Amino acid sequence: MKIGILTSGGDCPGINATIRGVCKCALNYYGMEVYGIHNGFRGLMDGHINRLTEESTSGLLTLGGTILGTSREKPFKKASASLSNNKPSLIIKTLEEYGIDCLVCIGGNGTQKTAAKLMEVGINVVSIPKTIDNDVWGTDFSFGFDSAVSIAADAIDRLHSTASSHQRVMVIEVMGHKAGWLALYSGMAGGGDIILMPEIPFDIHKIGDTIINRLKKGKPYSIVVVAEGINTPEGKKAAQYIAEEIEYETGFETRETVLGYIQRGGSPTAFDRNLATLMGGHAVELISKGQYGRMVALQGNKIDSIPLTETAGKLRLVTEDHELVVNGRKMGICFG
Ligand code: F6P
């Protein structure tokens, strides 16, 4: 059995740990051959593929990024309606040339959609959810998320001292694309006073009241955690907009920090290392049983899998009844 493995979409800590988990199980336990496909789906079209061995996996558990490289290539997306799209047939040809029996696709929502489309054209696929956004439907957590939360929470911790020293409002913008998971988890872990997410509309007057009420309680400073995807007037970055609005609304000196790509860098947390390892191993188990067309998923504390058709095209978003939101409100945290 020959499997091909590719990593697609935004990088994050834990991808290499997943590659390691797939390779070690496939090589040592199932006696399979493993081929690394470079730069996401593009590697299937330009044939940038090489054999992975036990030696390939050394040092991967703790290494950030992806040794295979990644891209946001979408092989089923036509350049224009008029042009024909020969990318899928190129992919099929490459897989036949290498005799690859099944693809392991590691990626976020876009990757899951492409994986489902590859199944439709007869290619065997098993996918593994990967994203710092934690917005892949069907899995409680994706690896990469815990590492990004830890990075963002550490950054928020550091903002408390400067906020209190200058009696300022510090606004920090975290990633998350269209979901608020990163803002919610890092905001709660970092002791944020105000946490704004795309899923929960905000009222700048309520935000101002929260800041003023803290002042009245002897806290002349506040920490505001903002997800990059909140609704702002055209083109305004989230943190910049919220900081301007707060300063206008309250008169407080306000400063913003955009954490950006730091959230995607560095070594994975222990949680992400183990989640990545388990998901990699489960993907190979599915392949050994011929159970294709499935995405590996963490459900509760169990590693399982769901049909790709169930997750493709769906987003997993924060809801008002999430326990961190409910508990945070009881504590007086403002969610907008
Ligand atoms: O999906 C991960 C992510 O980091 C999002 O949180 C962010 O909005 C996006 O990727 C940035 O995309 P790019 O890496 O293409 O700039």
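^ 6-O-phosphono-beta-D-fructofuranose complex. The CA atoms of residues 10 and 20 lie 19 Å apart. The first helix runs from residue 15 to 28.
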